[in-house]
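The records we work with from here on pair a chain with its fold. Taken together, the tokens spell out the fold as the letters spell out the chain. The record below shows the convention in full.
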Amino acid sequence: MVFAIGMNHFKRGNIHLAKLIKITKIYEKNSIHYYDISTKDFQSKEFYIGIDSPNKQILVFDAKDFSKPLNIININQADEIIDIPSIDPRLLWPVIGQAIKALQQNLFPQYLDYHA
């Protein structure tokens, strides 16, 4: 088994034993932390998120210019339905979970990677 920092997967030969979703901070502006989402494990449209700390919101974008969100998720609304057809939910939900953890802890590090 091989595992090293910077590798995308736990591996044994050509078999992947775990999934990695890389969530990498691009920049922060006006208390919104912008992240790039990437993975080799899901076939989904490329997307980005903004974590709006003061408003407790997660903004989901399909373009790196962050000009128009596909969806704005209020984490204070527990009954909100989140569905973005262009993004695989197996990729979206772990990303949203990591963003919620960052908001709850008020910590926005360079990496919010998800491993499963």
Q: What stands out?
A: The two ends are 16 Å apart (CA to CA). The chain has a mean pLDDT of 84. Residues 98 and 112 are 6 Å apart (CA to CA). The helical segments are 89-105.
